[in-house]
Amino acid sequence: MPNIFYSALFAITFPVYKALHKKRAYGRVEKHLAAAKEYEARESNNTNKMPHNKKSPPPNAIAKINARDTFRGIFWNALESYRGLARFKSIENRIVYENEHIIRNAIADCAKQNAPIAGISIHQGAFELMHRALCRYSKHVHLITDSVGDPAFREVLKELRSDPHLTEYHPDETGRLIRELFHTKGILAMVIDQGKHTKGNTVSLFGRPSTLYLRLPQKINEMGAGIVTFRTWSEKKRIVIRFESYYPPKYDENIGIAENAAPSESALVTGIAREVETWIAEHPEQWSWNYHGNFTATL
């Protein structure tokens, strides 16, 4: 279908969705955005200064958006994800890669140590494209996913995601995943801002207690795997896939974190949380503020 059809579809269905979810999904997004805007206003007024090693987000990015913008961003990015997975040339031709030297250098560094890599990100932009993008760098990409929708939809999505170099795992197969990851010295692909039936790491996002699901990448990092953070966002003419940071194997151990430190206190976890907050602040309209567990404090 052409874009004009989907524009009309969103225009018709969104008011209905909003009315039905005013006290649920839509209402939560409004409250989360209001709290983030208040936090960012304090930051800009220097009443709650950011750490010196934290990049400041562009001013007013969050202040300028509303809940409708975020739902519209999710709608279009989902559409671009599925078109991209279906290998539409109109999508593939828009994808650009930035900072590829980060993942290539990380793979080379880990190869010297006979170690695999974890490529981790969040549900932002056309995020489904990132899993397959990692197949550019390894013949063994291990994707951990959770069940979504009904069985028929799951099968369609699995077929769309398929690639000769990619293997999917359910969260219950974590043991098998770790064994095969260290056997193939490949890449673990996962998103870290949503999880079901699993315990995450408590972090701070926009001044509020939040959850990131970093226990698996943290575990394999302790076992000797490196971690590369990367993200995607959509622009009018481009879909950007950008690699951000490399955390070498045994990151916490090598910088002297105490053995009895809580998982949420580790430098690895707090460093990734700072990155995630910056990513969201730069493109807030392309991230879901509604995932259960994003903000655990009472609204």
Q: Can you walk me through this structure?
A:
With 299 residues, this protein is an alpha/beta fold. It has helices at 3-20, 25-44, 67-85, 89-92, 100-112, 128-133, 151-161, 174-184, 215-223, 251-254, 267-282, and strands at residues 95-98, 117-121, 141-144, 166-169, 187-191, 201-205, 208-212, 226-234, 239-247. The chain is built from 11 helices and 9 strands. The mean pLDDT is 87.
Q: How many distinct beta strands?
A: 9
Query: How are the strands ordered across the major sheet?
Result: 1-9-8-2-5-3-4
Distance from first to last alpha carbon? 40 Å
- Helix amount, in percent? 40-55%
Indicate the structural class: alpha/beta
Query: H/E element string?
Result: HHHHEHEHEHEHEEEHEEHH
Quaternary arrangement of the chains shown? single chain
pLDDT averaged residue by residue: 87
Shape: globular
Are there runs of 5+ residues with pLDDT below 50, and where?
none
Describe the biggest sheet? 7 strands, mixed
What integer value in Å does the Rg equal? Answer: 19 Å
Number of helices: 11
Strand % is 15-25%
Please specify the SSE layout and strand pairing.
Layout: H1 3-20, H2 25-44, H3 67-85, H4 89-92, E1 95-98, H5 100-112, E2 117-121, H6 128-133, E3 141-144, H7 151-161, E4 166-169, H8 174-184, E5 187-191, E6 201-205, E7 208-212, H9 215-223, E8 226-234, E9 239-247, H10 251-254, H11 267-282
Parallel strand pairs: 1-9, 2-5, 2-8, 3-4, 3-5
Antiparallel strand pairs: 6-7, 8-9
